[in-house]
Every structure is written in structure tokens, then in C-alpha cells.
Amino acid sequence: MAEHKQAATNRDPDHEVLEAFWAGDSGAFDSLVERHQGRVFRLACRLLGDRDSALDAAQETFVKAWKALPRFKGDARFSTWLTRIAINQCRNELRKRGTVKHTRPLSLDDVVPGTDSPRADSVEASGASAWETVRGEEVRTAFTAAMEALEPESREVLILTEVEALSYEGIAELLDVPVGTVRSRLHRARADVRRRMAAVLGTSPS
Amino acid sequence: MTQQPTNPEPSADFVLLNDLLDGRLDDADADAVRARIDTESPMREMWDELKRMQDCVRGYGPTGEALEPPTDFVAQVRRRIDTPGAEAAPTVEVPSSVPVSAPRPRGRVLRMFTLAYAAAALLVVGFTVHYALNRSDVESGSTLETADTPDDMGPPETATFEARSRETTEDLEDLEETAFLQDKRGREGEARSAPAAGSLDKGGKQTGAKPKAPGARDELAGRAKEKTASGDKPPVGGGFRGPGGAVPPGMRKPSDEVQPTPTRRRPRPGESPTPTPTPRPTATPSDLPPPDPMPPPDPVPPPLTQPVPEPSPEPVPVDPPARDPAPEGEDAEEDERAQPAKEAGKREAPTARDILLVYHADDVARAPTHLRELLAKVSLRLEPADPTPPPPSPTTPVPPSGTPPPPSSPPADPRAPATTAARLYRLTGPLSELRRLDSSTGIGGGAGGTFAETAGRKADSVVETLDAKSWQRLAGMIGGRTWPPAPAAKKSKRLPENKPDAGSARPGTPRPSRGSATGGRTDAGKPVRVRIVIVPAK
Q1: Residue B478: other Cβ atoms inside 10 A
Q2: Does A3 touch chain B (CB under 8 A)?
Q3: A108 found inside a domain
Q4: Which of A55, A182, B175, B227 stands 20 to 30 A from A20 (CA)?
Q5: CA B451, CA B354: separation in Å to the nearest integer?
Q6: Is A110 part of any domain?
Q7: Structure ipTM
Q8: How much is the average pLDDT of B212-226?
Q9: Which chain B residue's Cα is nearest to A70?
Q10: Full-model pTM
Q11: Residues of chain B positioned with their CB less than 8 A from the CB of A199
Q12: DSSP of A59-114
């Protein structure tokens, strides 16, 4: 225990909770989950693209963290360590899925996600902006497909940069790759998305 | 990047803009780049795209409340932890100092891999020995066959296998066919060599049903398995009908040997699925089995029936094959609209297949170039499926000067809203080349769903579009405006062939007169659906 106390420096915001966990406080881990669940879940959502898979991956992340926490030495922040587990979990999930993506044609009879009405109703209700409504949906769909078609490493860097607002150095530390690799992956990801959007829509992302 | 033809090094600019976006430039450099953004239109467009992309990425994935974990998230995690299975599960070692991609302890896994490798090595050695032993037997039996074989063909057996390899017939079914052909030749060679050995079996020659020599059979099966194990080409899902292994003798017509067309696999109604082999009355050298008539792939693709003009002074950007718009995402639409074309193809060849390439308005200009690029890879011929194309009309977009004009044809399906601009092609060639087209370009997934239906499906070959019914409904909703929107004005200027003709909309469709909210684009665009009827060579 003293080793943990020594290693987990005060710079980690989770230091006190970790101390409590190591001291035998069974509720300390619940506090850690509450503190980080939103960030881990959102990251999983963006890496995996759908809520159900993200929920499962996020929960599994915390289960694995709980199992491995006795060996956590505090070399990095708990949040960084947890993010590594989450990314690994998402990678495993993506590996299970394989690389074949099949997107179905949009149908106006489909129910709009989050509503009970078919897409046709929403389009009709939008009146004069029906064009833009469907166009916007097409753009979103194309963008989602472009993101899913990215290499996992490129997508991770893109999301960590834009969504998590991490610096190159922070991502490099998280993924244990040189900063130059982060930069090149990021540029490649953006170029890929731009190219795929142009290929599918004939336009750039808008 | 290919969309910035005026910039000699667009990638360098793109990198600069990325660095600016991420705040990786010092003040002086950032000011210089901003000045270029203000003055150079391509830089400004790229910058705007990057900014929009940034917004898209930030909104990627579930949004709103869907991004919030459920209220009982902690309880669910606790339940998972308290599950006896979770307690008993092996501990996952994730030390804080180990990065994401670092290897993990894998002693047990390593041992399993070692065993697997050892087993695989044993199998390879076994097959090799088996192959070597049986090959010597077969070669001695095929000596007579090689006597009158043209020099450039080599031994028939070798030529057959080489030809088969060139054909890239990628499924096990073809392996079965190859095994059968070799089986039959082995039997014939055996029959011819039998008199020399003084063991004439007339009954077997007359009926053609004499069981083959076990050794030849095993050799063939071993080759088929070896070819499969060698991983030359992955088996094509569409043609896979079962595990490997030779087809029993007498299950296919001898003509199958020289006509590897899909009709062998899916006999038409009334056609005997198990034709009886034609008996060979004699076994003289003049009756040597003909060399495999399947010609090797033509190194120079045959010219298009459509004249290919000189290249355009402004080259049309051509996507790499992996980006070929594939029809996987619109199976339902294809099934509806491709039926007439399929029927038309069936009138000419019962095994015609449809491949529907969907080009959005901006990609219209790319279609002919794209097709030419495809045909440069395979020995196929492309020709208009309609022998009497309708006279030019205002509904036909003017083809580019540097690209072959896609032949017009009447719409194959009146329900398809874009058929006024549809193009019907017939792509003719050996089946093996058709498969090469599929496997090398990722088009795949024809309307019938059986043309190498899984081989070419890639994540980046999916095209999102509306299904046919929704196209119609949408067309009515938006007051006759066509869909999808027209290309941007700048692209139309750069690619004049890409500029759609507003008058080409469906009859009765008013000409759009204003730009939409999609960045000043007009609404006169329409998709061009290039329908390719696949007709295997007879």
C-alpha cells in the first residue's frame, strides 16, 4: 500500500479516491466510475459509433480497471490509464466486427432514430426545406460512413484531437507513439475523410 | 487532394492548414498561412472544408442524450463485477506504464500458436511429399499427351494449371472443376498408356465410366487442396458451394472443360444437372484433349467499342479502385430496377449478371474514365447494351471531349427516377475476367447477388443513396426537383462534361432555377446510373 501511496502522486485528481480504494473502501471504486463514466462512455460512443456497443465497452472498461487496479502503480494518471483500457476495449470490439461495412439505402419509410415517425413525415413537415433535410441526412450518413472506413488508428487520433481536445503530446503519451506519428495520422485521417466525402457526395463535408 | 489541380503541391498546403487548425504553427507562419487563405481561393476552400470537417467530427456518433450514460451505469458495472464469472475471469494485466499498443503476457497463447504452427508445417510437408510422389506417376502417364502438344502450350497438365491460375478462378468450385478435368485427363492418359503397358480395358474406354486410378484421383484432390492452402486467391463467397474436394467423375459434361461459364453451376430448368460424359471412341494421339481454350488474359485490353478520344486537356480525377462506387448499399433498389436489364441480358446469355454503378451528379464525368480504367485491368469488352441508342436529346448530358461518351439507352425501369440519364452497358468477356473485375475493383455484388457477391465488398465501397421507392416519393415532395443536387459551379467549370443539363430532368420536371442551400449549387443535377450487364463469353 505504501508503494501505491508513494507512486500515486498528488497531481492525480483521483489520488485520494485511489488511496481510499487501496485502503479497502469498497465504495471508492463506485466514485471512480461515477467520476469517469461520462468521458469513457462518450469516447466509446465516438470510437464505436453506436450507443449499445459503447455502453457495453464502457462497462467492460471499468470491470477490467477494477480487476487491474490492485496493480496500478500510478505511473500515469488514473484517467490516462483508464482511457488506455477503454481504447483497447474499443479496438477489440472493432476487431470483432471486422472491416466489412454494409450501409443500407435510406428509406423514407424508416423510422427516424429517436422518434416514432418515419423519415417521410419529417421531410414533409419540413416543407420548403425538405431538400435540405434529406441532403443534410445524406451528408451525415456519408460522413459516418467515411469515419467508419478510416483506419482505427487514424480515427482514434482524429477523435482524441477534435472531441477530447487532447494535444499531440497528450495523444502521443496515451498511445505511446511519437508526436510525429500522431501528426501524420491526424493529417491522413482528415485527408481520407475529405476524399471519401468527395467521392460519395461529390462535395466536401458541409 | 486531387481536386486542386492548379496547386502543384496540394498536400503541402493541406498539411499547413492542418497545422494551423491544430495550432502547431508559430505566429509568423500562422500569419502567412492566414494571408494565403485570404488571397488564394483553393486555400480558402480547403480551410473551409477542414473547419466543416472539424464540426462534423465533433458531432460524430451519438448525440444529445444518447451521449450520456444511463443513470444506472454504476449499478450495471457493479453487477458485472459482482458476477461470479467476472470474479473467476482471468485478471487482465493493464499496468499503468504499459501503453495501449504494448504487447501483453501471452505464454499460454504462445504455446498454442507453436502447436498450431507445428501442425501446419506437418500438413505442408505431408502435402508436398504426397504431391511429389503422385506427380511423377501422372507425368509418366501424360507423356503421350505432350507428344502433339504445341511447344508454347507445354505439357497439357501444366498448361491447364497455368491457365487456370491465370484465370484467377477463385472459388473452390473451380478447384473442383480443375480437379475433375485433371481427373479426366488422367484417366484418358491412363487409358492411352494402358495399351503400352499391355493392359487394354476396352469396356472402360467405351463407356467412359471406368473408375479412375486412385493415385490420379488423390493427386488431383491433393492439388486442389494445395492450391487452396497456398492462398493464391481467397475463395469467392458467391461461388462457394461446399468444402473442397473433387467432384465425382462423370458429374459434368466434357464441354465444361472448355467453357467455364456460370451455366455449369446453375443449370437452367430442363437442363440435366449431371450430364453424362461423352465417351471417347479412340485414344490415338490425334484425339489428344485440346488445350484449354480459355485464352490467357490479354495483356492489352481490347479497345472499347466506343471510340476513345484523346485525353482531356483537363484530366478527370479518377479515384483508386478501392473507391469505386459499389452497389452494395442499394440491393433493394437494384433488385427492382435491374430486373429489365437482367431479362435483357438473359435473352442473350442466360447467365448475364447486372452490376449497377451509381454515380452521383458530380461523378458523371468520372464514369467513362472510370470504366476505361477498369477495363485496362481486365480483358473485357464494353459496348452499349442497346444496339439502337435513341437519338441525342436535350436529356442526354454532353459527354466530355476527352472521354468516351456513354451510350444512351432507354430507362430500364420506369420507377427509377434517374433513368433519364441511365446508361446501359454490356460488359463481355471470360468469366475469369469478370471475376477479376470484381475482385480487383471491389465492384461486386450484382443485382442478382451472385456475382462474387462477397469478394468485393469493402467498407469504403459503399454508396449511400435512397432506395427506388423513396426516390420517387422524394421527387414528388420536392416539387419535381431532381436528386441528388447538381455539382458545384466550380466543378462544372473545371469539368464541363460534368455539368448536367437542366433539361434532362424527367418529362414534366420544371427546370430548377435557383441554387439550393447547399452552397449555391443548382438543383438540376441527377444521378447517372451506369448499368453494366455482365455477359460471360460464349
Answers
A1: 21
A2: no
A3: no
A4: A55
A5: 8
A6: no
A7: 0.73
A8: 42
A9: B95
A10: 0.39
A11: 319, 323, 325, 363
A12: HHHHHHHHHHGGG---SS-HHHHHHHHHHHHHHHHHHHH-S----PPB-TTSBPTT
